[in-house]
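Consider the following input, taken from an annotated entry for Carbohydrate esterase family 16 protein (Westerdykella ornata).
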Amino acid sequence: MSISHRFRPIAVAAALLAGTNLAQAADYLITFGDSYSQTGFNVSAAKPSAANPIGNPPYPGWTTSGGPNWIGYLLEDYSASTLLSYNFAYGGATVNASLVKPYQPTVKSLIDQVKQFSDSIAPKPSYAPWNAENSLFAIWMGVNDVGNSFWLENVTELHGKIMQDYFEEVEVLYQAGARNFAFLNVPPINKSPMMLAQPEESRELEATVIAKFNQLLVDHANAFASSHQGVKIVVVDTQAPFDAAIADPAKYGSKDATCFNSDGKTCLWFNDYHPGTAIHGLVAEAVARTWNGSIFREIN
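Applying the prediction step yields:
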């Protein structure tokens, strides 16, 4: 995992020498999620460019990792050429705020985020001429949907409704022209420092609910793929990257698997619920490796 935070200028220079508009030559990473994905992007402000692929604020953005999050690492370490990020993720988000309330009513749910997309770059404006071939739509949702509901008696029914709403939003993206999708599943948040302070019974229950939620995601993704022409869909397992770091924290610069530090580097965790940069780097690698196609470079 590179820590240089330098972006590749070669494709940009080639485009400029050829007299090609950079936006036309770029690929697009269009993302939705919660605090695990947020960078503080405002679609009405400075647009993504070669100088700052996340657009605004300055790279790596307002993250909860202490540095780049998985989106930043995808842009920096795994992009095959010029990759521009339009990231609608919002900290605290759930899929549908009327089903699982976020910590504040101002939090933008997945439904709200997709509406932002629809109201901004869905029409493929001149500053973001994405198309079905040069764009990847990635969604990492569920951490708050599970974390705020796993103990409820009706959790199975609730998560069924959540997943239905999730894929109604995917349908909106499809109708706008999206064809490439990466859905990231729920990581083992039951192993976060915050949850390790809870009784073992609670952690085991949450792990069980996470597994069921993740299976729902796979089932709905398969159903969507079979009923929609021209799509490529992958479900990215985020459990494995988290577990790899937790199993060998010293390899990633941490004294143990439970410490947290806001520098994002000397511990696996940024705080008691958000992973630091090492785990985000592993998640980015998992996304690029699972996608295994254009937009990201080949991984040996």
